[in-house]
């Protein structure tokens, strides 16, 4: 379960942090990260790590979507259970309340052509444009000595136009070589 491991690491959380936050043991979390274990603990970990089921849009019933896909493919419960290698009651529990093992769900998703199992959630309200603030707070404070050292390193290869996206106090803008066509910009409102 690469997505689970990647999400935990991206949040800077240890296995112990996640285990405590979800009320499961570290060995249980390790098993989940290997694609083993039960769906109950996986669902708890998904909540902490901000993950969702990958085969269904937010707000839809994942178990019902799984059953719907099986029916749309014209596969009976008995046939899918046989192909997964589980009992029909196990498949029924999976399709009714998403109960069972991670391995059983993974195999069902593979057979039904539903991937990925998990996906991250896009951050809400966070775009590329920063929130508005007072212009006085929007200064870049690069020390002039540091800017001069950086420019000095790259100056022999610089030519044409240079756009400084954050002029601030001018440490970079003012230090660019005179032969360059210098410009700067700010995000306006």
From TrEMBL:
Record's protein name: HTH cro/C1-type domain-containing protein
Species name: Pleodorina starrii
Coiled-coil ranges from the UniProt annotation: none
Transmembrane segments: none
Gene that this sequence comes from: PLESTB003904
SUPFAM superfamilies: lambda repressor-like DNA-binding domains (SSF47413)
Domain of life assignment: Eukaryota
Chain ranges of the HTH cro/C1-type domain: 4-56, 66-118
Gene Ontology terms for molecular function: DNA binding
Entries under Pfam families matching the protein: HTH_3 (PF01381)
